[in-house]
Each structure stands twice: as structure tokens, then as C-alpha cells.
Amino acid sequence: MLPLALRKPLVAVSLLALLAGCQATPNTELRGTGDLGVVVERATGSLAVVDTSHHRILARVEGLGDLSHASVKFSRDTRYAFVFGRDGGLSRVDLLTGEITHRVMQSGNSIGGAISQDGSLVAVANYEPGGVKLFDSETLEEVAEIPATYRDDDGHEQRSKVVGLVDAPGNRFVYSLFEAGEIHVIDMNGEAPEVTRFTEIGEEPYDALIGPSGRYYIAGLFGEDGLALLDLWHLEEGVQRILPDYGRGEERLPVYKMPHLEGWAMAGGEAWLPAVGRHEVLIADSGDWSLVERIPVHGQPIFVMTRPDERQVWVNFAHPDNNVVQVIDTERREVIATLSPGEAVLHMEFTPRGEQVWISARDSDRVVVYDTRTLDEVARLPSESPSGIFFTDRAHRIGL
Amino acid sequence: MPLPAPCRLLLLSLCWLPLAALADGSLSTEREEELETLLYQDCGSCHGMTLRGGLGPALPRSRMNAYSRDGLAALILQGVEGTAMPGWQGLLTEEEARWLADHLQNDNPLDE
After folding, report:
1. What are the backbone angles phi and psi of residue B55, rounded to the nearest 5°?
2. Can you tell me the distance from the alpha carbon of A137 to that of A113, in angstroms, rounded to the nearest whole number?
3. ipTM score of complex
């Protein structure tokens, strides 16, 4: 609190400002949030609140802890951003005021989270201790903890790191257990969360995604080629393995960075996925999940993301090939452009209807905005070590 | 804690590192800065930017000093079989790996 003596002059100053009709700060504007977003600035542990219509940074929110590998979800009213920090911090940020409304340290090490279909719960995927925690989305009060336990080869109970946590229709959450090789579904319709386990789904699921309809959950496997698919309309059918032999007989390259599966790339009834340890993007038929094609690209893909109209797929790459982004024409299935936004490109985010894309170049300390039709750069914003970029339209999309 | 894989690597490294390795201190300041960025940002994508761990284990000073410097450098270059730790020898020289090992052992911010 300010000392009393200081408060009066401040009141006087703000009254003067009002009298002068001077609305200097964005906080005083009455505005919507549909064209807002956030950029995670991992080195400084801050979040830049951005306006995607005018390519402006509206506010910087600091004090969010260790944001290496941080991810963000939005409340369904798209006013609040939930920030999942690597250090286990969960923060709720008001995009309009640029303030942290709530913050809890909920674990020692976490990887991401999800918001429930009805918007009432925020779930966090934890590495240490391995499991999922659920919080009330308005107060961040803990509602439940679900340890990710499994039996190791010696029959001892262990806790597994949780990856690929997503929301699913029916007020459910789905996630994968890295060491255990399992997929779990939590149903929140009863009094307590009910967990359904699927075991032996494959070696080391490292990340997962859920399709835009919320029907298919797919976990990428690090310990073997292929992916694990769960049809959420038919849990009784269990998990099936897809693309089990996409690289059979070929040596994998060293994987310097795990691919990310968030941001399912679906185009024309086909799923576009990053290959692990290969300079390829894989295309699978989403009807029978057979491999349709392998497209050679610049390096090992990290994010493979479809422009919302599905005409283009944009790909970024693992170290040391991470200074470029490639654009693939989904009809011709070939790379049509290689762009150089800066050094260490970490993430890409399309505007809601896809006319522009924002790209973070960590080691160039900037975010570059491209027109996706002309592929020309249209804006550049300074940002220290930017990583994830998240726009509020994610609030209304299943799995994002 | 038993560390069979690193021990194996340590033995390997004894035969494998050339005796006439380059003297330390010959990396340019610029390259050292790049290596520091690599360590905290790129190694950090698995081990955490603060080295407190992620999909990969935490790398505190105590754990790093359980290895010899050259053993740790060999582990960085060759990776750890059966885990997600890749060998970095396609991207780093032996001298650069030793610089990283030295940094992890002596300039490690995670003093645990």
C-alpha cells in the first residue's frame, strides 16, 4: 500500500488526467479480447499481451516464474490467460489490466495444462511429482489431485511424468504417461474424477494431440516409430497403434528436441504429423490411419500447423536447423517457401482466420508477423527470448 | 546411486579421447556465449532452463561432479543409449563438450 500522504496527490493527478480527457493507459479502454493474445518471454519470465489487429504490445506481465516451455490456455470469456510455468507455477492473468489475479505453486515441475469443456476447471500436467491436478478456474483453488501411478518392471509403484494433457468433450481430460506408456481418461461428471486407464499403448509417449472434433486422441511415441490412437467415441475398442512402421529399417537421426503435437494439422481428411528423428512430415489418411506420404523438409520438424483454411501447412524445426520456417502447399504436397524469420524459431500462431501468422525467433529477440498469402513480412515486434505465442481464439476450440 | 551407463562411457572415453586434445581456453568468447545459450536454451528444452529437469533429469552441480570432466564431455558427445539423450557429436567438438562439462561442474547455477 502507498503511504497515505502519497495517495492524495495521486488521486488528484488521476482526476486531472480524466478532466483532460486523457486516457493514457490501455487499461482504461473499453474493449473486447477477441483479437488479443500473449507471447511467452521465457528468459525474463514475462508475458507480452499483444493486439493482433494493430501489431502492438499492450502490456508486459512479469513475475510468472520459470517460463521455459510454458504454455497458455484461455478462460471461455477470453479475458483471462492461464499460464503453466515449468517450475510448477500456475498463474491467472487478466489480459485487460495486465495483472496476475491468482497464482499458485502447485508442483515442482510441470509441462502444460488444459481447460475443461465447461470452462470451470483448469488441469495441470505435472512431471514432478507425476500426475494431474485440477483447479477451480475462477479461484485457482485445488479441486483434486490424480497421481500418475504405475507398476514398473519390478512390480514397484512409481509415478510417471504426464504429457499431452488435453480437454475432451463430455467434460473429460485425456493425458499420457511418459515412463508408464499409458493413456488415462478422467471423467469429471461424477462427484469425484473417475480415471480410465489404457496400458501398453507404446514406448514413451512424449506428447499428444486431440483432433478438432474432439474424437481422436493421438500420442506420439519416442521409444518406437508410430503413434497411439484412442477413439473417444469408442473407449471400449481401446488404443490402437497407427503408422507403426513409418521408418522401418532406417536409422533415426539424433533427436535434439522433441516434436510437439499440439496444434493438430488436419487438411483435406488427412493428418499432418512430425516424424521423430527424420527430416520429414508424415501424412496419414484420417479414415484408416494409413501412411499416405512422407514429405521431405529442411530439418526435424517440431510444430506442423495448418493454416485455418487448410490450404497451407507451416513447419518449424529442431536445433540446429531452427532458423527457418517452411510452408507446404497441402494440395500439391510440396514445400513452396522457406522463410527466415530469425534465429531459433520456436513457435508459430495463426490469427483466427489465418490471414497472418506470428512467429517467435528466440535468439533474435523478436516476433515476426507474415501475411500468409503473399508470404511477406508485415510487422516485427521486439520481445526478449520469445517462445510460445497463443491467441484468444483457442478458448473456443476443443483441445486448445 | 548406481550409474552403469556413465561408467561405461567413462571407460570408453579414456580410450577414445585423443591424448593430444586441444588445450582449453582456445574457444573464442563468441563461441563460449553460443555454447552458454545452447546449454540453457536447447539442453534446457529437456533439462529445464534452470537445469531443474523436465522430460530429462535435473543437472545439479552435485550430479555433474559425480563424473570426471572428460567423462561428462564424452556423455554429451555420445548420448545415453536407451534414453532420449542424443549424442551431440555432430554439432559439438570435443573441446566444446569439455567446455560445457566444465561449466556444468563449476559454474552451475543449480548448486545442489
Report:
1. -65, -30
2. 12
3. 0.77
